[in-house]
Records
---
Amino acid sequence: MFGLKNVLSLAVILPFARLAVGQAAEWGQCGGIGWSGATTCVSGTVCTKLNDYYSQCLPGSATTPPPTTTVPATTPPPGTTTSTGSAPPGLSSIPASTLHQITGFGTNPNNVPVYVYKPARVAANPPLIMAIHYCGGSAQAYYTGSKFAQLSETYGYVVLYPSSPHSGTCWDVSSNQTLTHNGGSDSLGIASAARYAIANWGVDANRVFAVGTSSGAMMTNVLAAAYPDIFKAGIVDSGVPAGCFSLPGQPEDSWNAQCAQGQLVLTGQQWAQRVFDAYPGYTGARPKMQVWHGTVDTVLYPQNFYETVKQWTTVFGYPSTPISNVSEPYLPSGYSNATYGPNFQAILAQGVGHTVPLFEQQYLQFLGIA
Ligand SMILES: *[C@@H]1O[C@H](CO)[C@@H](O)[C@H](O)[C@H]1NC(C)=O
Ligand SMILES: *[C@@H]1O[C@H](CO)[C@@H](O)[C@H](O)[C@H]1NC(C)=O
Ligand SMILES: *[C@@H]1O[C@H](CO)[C@@H](O)[C@H](O)[C@H]1NC(C)=O
C-alpha cells in the first residue's frame, strides 16, 4: 500500500507540475495521474478524461460527450438488440437500466460490494461481464467512466461491478488467499457473485467474462488463473501477470513495487506455474485472454506486458513470438495487435501511459458478444 500511496500522493502534489512542452498529438495522452507531458491538444482534437490515469486527445470538437459523462441509454437503439424482451427468472426483481447493489450472493470474506447493471431488454441466457475498476475507482466510477452498461442496452448482456473494500480501493492481488481457487479474499467474493448470477439469473455459464483496468486488470489475470472454471475470457487493460504481486504472509492488498516497476522478470514456465498453482489439479480449458498496455506506463511498467505475454503463451503452449503483429484500422496509429494463437492477443500502445483507453466495442467482439 505504501508504494501506491506514494504514487497517488506524488500525483496529487505534482499534477502537471512540469511545464507542458508543445501540444499532444491526436490520440496522444494529455493528462492523468503521473502524467507530466503536454496537457493541451493539437487543433481539431479535445483533451478528454477517460479515467483518473488517462486523458487523451480525441478527434472532434467539445460537442462529443466524453466517456466519463456518458449516461447509459435507457432504451436500446431500435433494431439492434439481440434480446428476447423478457428477463430470465431471478433477474426480474432487479431494477432495469440503473446501477443496483446486490447482497447475499454467497461466500464473500471481505464483504466486497457488488453492483449489477441489467439492461432494459436482457438476452436469453445472457452473457455476463465482470467489470473491475482501477485503484482509487469504485463500481460507480467504472460504471460512469466506461461504456459497458451503455452497450448492454444494445447487446442484452448483464454487467457486474465489484467495488474494492480496501482503503485506496485497489484490489487484493497479493495474498495467498486471493491467489488461490476458493482460497478467500476479494477474488472469492467476485467469483461468488459470478456463480450467483449463473445459478439464479439464467446467465450463460459459457459466456462469463472479466474485464479490468489497472488494479482491475491485475484482478482479471488473477481471476483467469484462479477461477478458469468460471471466467471464459479476460481483457486486461494495463495490468501485471497473475501472481506478480504475490506477497504471501503480508497483509492483503499489499503493493508490490518490484512487480509494478517491471523488475520481476521470470521465464514463461515460472509464470505459467503461478497460474497452475492458483488452482492445483485443474485440467479444464483456460480463459481466452486479450492484454493491452502502453509503452510509457510509469505506474505499471511496460515490462509487465512482456511478462504477461510469457505467462499466457506458455499456459496455452503458443510460440513466444506472435504469428501476426499488425496495426488495426480502428485503433490509433502506434497500436500493434500481436496474435499468438486463437486464445491470446497482446496489444501494445506506443506512447501511451497508464492506462490504455478502453475500446469496449472491440472487447465485445473479442468476447463474441458483438
Ligand atoms: C495458500 O493457500 C492455500 C489455500 O488456502 C493453502 O493450501 C496453501 O498452503 C497456502 N500457501 C502458502 C504458501 O501459504
Ligand atoms: C509488435 O510490433 C511493434 C512494432 O510495430 C513492436 O513495437 C511490438 O513490440 C510488437 N509486439 C510484440 C508483442 O512483440
Ligand atoms: C488482432 O488480430 C487478430 C488476428 O487478425 C484478430 O482476430 C483480432 O480481432 C485482432 N484484435 C484486435 C484487438 O484488433
---
Amino acid sequence: MSVPLLDLNRQNASLHSELVAAFEKVLRSGHFILGGEVESFEREAAAFLGAKHAISVSSGTDAILVALMALGIGPGDEVICPSFTFFATAGCIARLGATPVFADVHADTFNLDAADVARRITPRTKAIMPVHLFGQSAAMEPLLALARQHNLAVIEDAAQALGARQHGRCCGTIGDFGTYSFFPSKNLGGFGDGGLVATNRDDLAEKVRLLRTHGSKPKYYHKVVGGNFRLDALQCALLRIKLPHLPAYCAARQRNAAYYGSRLAGLGGLTLPQPAVGNDHIWNQYTLRVGGHGRRDALRQHLTAAGIGAEIYYPLPLHQQECFAGLPKVSLPTTEALAREVISIPIFPELTEREKTEVADSVIAFSKLSGTVAA
Ligand SMILES: *Cc1c(COP(=O)(O)O)cnc(C)c1O
C-alpha cells in the first residue's frame, strides 16, 4: 500500500456539494473582486484568530510583502529572520531593498533563538520576523522583549500556523503583524493561492488595505505606491466553507502526531518533534531528525521504496542560497545541521489507521535495519 505525503482530494471531496454551491453563488452574483464574500471571510477569520483586523490578500508571500511595506521597510533597513524557513520569509525582505539578517534556531522547536537574534541587532535593524515553523509557535516572549528594548516591529510569519496558539493566544496575533497562507498544503488549504494579514493596530490595518489596491483612496487617487494584493471573492467564498472545519483538521493532525509519538519513541538515531511547553502545535508537518552521516537520505530512500511520501523541508538554508551570495557570510550551526537531518512524513488529517500504521512500521523497520534501535 502506498501512502501519499498529502491528499487534498479526501478533504475537499467531503465538502464537495457545499463548495460547488458556494462557487455557483459567486458565479451567479457576477461580483468577483472584494465585496460581501471577502468581507464576510475577513470577519470570520478575525473572529477565529481573536484579532482586531484580518485582511485577505493574494498569497502568503504577498501577506509578508504588504506587512513589510506597511511598516515602511526598505533600502538600508535590516530585518532579522530565520534561515531555516520557506524562501518567502527572506525573499520579501530582499525584494523591498532591505537586508535579511539570518539568525539561528533552536534544535528542538526549529524556531528562532532569541539569544542569537540579540547578537545580530544593529542600529539598522527595523524588525524581527519569527516563523512559526511546521505549525508551532516560536518562543515569543524573549523576542517581544528584544523588540520593546530596541523599538523593533515584529512580523510573525504564521503561514504554517493558522490555528496554533502560544499560552492561549493565536500565532500571528501576538506581534504587530501576523501573516498566513492558504496555499493548498497549509492547514487551511485553499483552491489556489491566497493569504491573510492580521493585526490589532488600526493604523497598520488601514495601510494594508490601502496598499492592497495600489494605494488608491478614493479610486484613481494614489496616496502611496501599492500593488494588486487582493484575494478573489471566489476564493473567500470557498474558504468560508472550510474555515469552520479548521479546528477539526488540526485535531486530526494532533492525533496523528500522538500516534507517531507513541510508535516511534525510543528509536536510536531518531529525534521526534516535541511541542514546547505552552504551545498548541497544529502539525503542518511532522518532522523527524535523523542523526548520522547520510542516514536521513537513507530513510528517505527506504520510505520512497515502500511507496511512502516524504519530503525535506528544507534542504538548503536561505543563508546558503545562491541569490543571497552577496550578503555577509554567516555560520548558523543548528540551521545547517537541521538541513542535513530533517525529514517530514505524512501527517494530513485524513490519513487512515492503516496508512499511519504503515508509515510507523516502515520507519521502525528502517531503524532496525540500520541497527540503531535503542537498547
Ligand atoms: C507557504 C509559506 C509562505 C508563502 O506562502 P504562499 O501562499 O505560498 O505565498 C511563507 N512563509 C512560510 C513559512 C510558508 O510556509
---
Amino acid sequence: MYNLEEQYSPFGISKDVLTFGEEIIASLEERFRQMDETAEYNQLKVIHAMQQCRVSEACLSGTTGYGYNDLGRDTLEQVYAAVFHTEDALVRPQITCGTHALALALMSNLRPGDELLSPVGKPYDTLEEVIGIRKSRGSLKEYGISYRQVDLLPDGSFDYDNIRKAINEKTKLVTIQRSKGYQTRPTLSVAKIGELIAFIKEIKPDVICMVDNCYGEFVERTEPSDVGADMVVGSLIKNPGGGLAPIGGYIAGKKECVENAAYRLTSPGLGKEVGASLGVMSSFYQGLFLAPTVTASALKGAVFAANVFEKLGFSVIPDSRESRHDIIQAVTFGKPEGVIAFCQGIQAAAPVDSFVTPQQWDMPGYDSQVIMAAGAFVSGSSIELSADGPIAPPYAVYFQGGLTWPHAKLGILKALQNLVDQNIVEKL
Ligand SMILES: *Cc1c(COP(=O)(O)O)cnc(C)c1O
C-alpha cells in the first residue's frame, strides 16, 4: 500500500529502472546533504535580506503607468543588493531575458572607443550578436566598441600571459561567463572567478569586471560579487526567479554601473525612477525566496543524472564526482536516437504538455536540427526541468532544472526508461 513503485508505474517506469535509480541515490546521500546545507545557508541569506530591507505586504502589489515611487520595485532592488552584497541593483520585468540584461550592462557601461575583453573564451551564443562577433544590427561593434578574446588553455585554466597582453589602455570592461553554457569547457567556480578578477585588477584597477551569472546563482554560498565582480548579471527565468518569476532580469553591482544600466534601460534623466512593476512583484519576491531550494533541487537532478549515465558508460560533463558551479548537465549519447529518446522522456514527465512528443526541427540560428523538451509553467524557463540537444555529433543532450527534486528524479527515470525501451541502453 502506498508504495513508490506503484506510484511510478503509471508513468511506465519499471521496477528495474526504479531500483537502478534508487541504488544510485543511496550513494549520493552525502552530496545531497551538502547541497541541502548550501540551500539552508542561502535561504537564510535571502530571508535576512528581506527582513533587513523591511519587505512588507505593500511591496507585493504593483504600480501602473510611470511607476513613480514603486515601493515593491525599489525594495526588491535593495533586497537583491543585500543578497549579492552589492551597492545597488536593477531588477525589472522590463529586462526581457538574460541576453537583454547582459546587453544592457555592456551597452550602458561602454562608450565608443572602449574595448571589451573576454578572458574566458567565446561567450554565450546570443552575445555574439550583442558584441558583433557575428555581424548584427545594433551591436557594440556598430557603436565603435572593439572586442578582444583570450581563450582558456586546453586544460580549462586561464591563459594569464595572453590576458596580460590583451589588456590595454582601451580595455574598459571585462566579461566573465561563469557557466559553461553549451560549451565543453569547465564551469568556473566563484573562487576561480575571484582569482581572475584579482589578476585583472592588479594590471588595471579601474577596469569593470562583469560576470554573466546565468545558471550559477545559489549553487555556491558566495557569488562572484563577493570576490570582486563589479556587476553580476542574470535572468529571472533561471535560478533567482525560483520558477515563479514570469519574466525579468537583474544587474547587481557598483552603484555607478547599475545607474548607467538604468539610464540605458529607461532614459537618460529618468533611470531607476520609472518602470511600473505591474503585477509581477509578488512572484519576484516569492521566487527569490524559493530560489535557494529550487536551485538545490535542480542540482540534485544534475548530479543524479551524471551518476546514472556515467554508470551506464556514457560520457557526462560535469562527471559524477566533480564539484558543481552551475546547474547544467551534459550527457553524450553518440547517436541521434539517444538524444531524441532522452528529450522525449523529459517531456513525458512534465506537468504541462506531457502528451506532446518533441521532434527535432531546423531552429533558426543553428547549423543542425535541434530537439527540445520543455513542459514548463513559464515559457522557455530553464530552471524548470528542460532538455535540448542538437542532432549532430557528438549527439549530446544538455539538460537543467527541476523545480522540485522528485520531479527532476521522475524526468531522469523516464528518460532512462525510454532509452531502455528502445534498446539504446541494453543492460542496467
Ligand atoms: C541563458 C544564458 C544567457 C542568455 O539568457 P537568455 O535568457 O536565454 O537570453 C546568457 N549566458 C548564459 C551563460 C546563459 O546560460
---
Amino acid sequence: MEKKERIPPGQSKTEDFPVLHVGDVPVFDPKTWIFSVEGLVENPVTVSFDEFRKIAPAESTSDFHCVTGWSRLDNRWEGLLFKDLCKLVKPLPEAKFVSVIAEGDYTTSLSMEEMLEDEVIFAWSLEGKPLEPDHGGPLRAVVPHKYAYKCAKWVRKLIFTAQKEPGYWETRGYSDSADPWKEERFD
Ligand SMILES: Nc1nc2c(c(=O)[nH]1)N[C@H]1C(S)=C(S)[C@@H](COP(=O)(O)O)O[C@H]1N2
Ligand SMILES: [Mo]
C-alpha cells in the first residue's frame, strides 16, 4: 500500500544517494566481523556475517528521509527484518527499547514498538547489490518511518533495555521521536 503523500513536509526528493556520516568508513573484515544481541532477551546471540544472512533473509522497499531535507524513494533493501530477528532472540517482557550500536561511537535507540514496524530491516543489500561501505555496508539499520539518523550504518550490536539510552544525535539536540511526517527534527 502506498501513502498518498510520499514526501514529508519540508523535504525534497533526490534521485541520487548522498553519503552522510560522522567519522571514517570502517573497513569490513569478514573474518573478525560479528553481530551480537545482548540485554533483555531470552536468547542472546553472536553471529558471523554469513550466519546473520542465513537467519531469515527478506526484502523490504521503503523511503528514506534525512533530517537535512532530502528524501530518496523506493529503496529496495535485502536483509533481516527486526521482527524476524526477534523470533530468534526472544525479547523479555521487560525489554522496552533497543539500542542500535554501530562501529565507532555512533548509536541510536528506538522503542520496541517503533522497531517492530513491518519495514524495519538490517540490510546488507540495496537494489540487489551488496551494500556499499559508504552507505553502511556490510550492515545497516533501516527505519523508514523515522529520520535517517535512526538508520545506523555499520551496525554491530543491539542491546535490549528497559530504559531508553539516547543516541549520538539524540543527545546533540535532534528529536528522539524523529517522525518526518510530523517534522520532529529538533528537541
Ligand atoms: N554509523 C553511522 N550511521 C549513520 C550516521 C553516522 O554518522 N554514523 N549518520 C546517519 C544520518 S544523519 C543519515 S542521513 C544516514 C545517511 O545514510 P547514507 O549515507 O547512506 O545516505 O545515515 C545515518 N546513519
Ligand atoms: Mo541525516
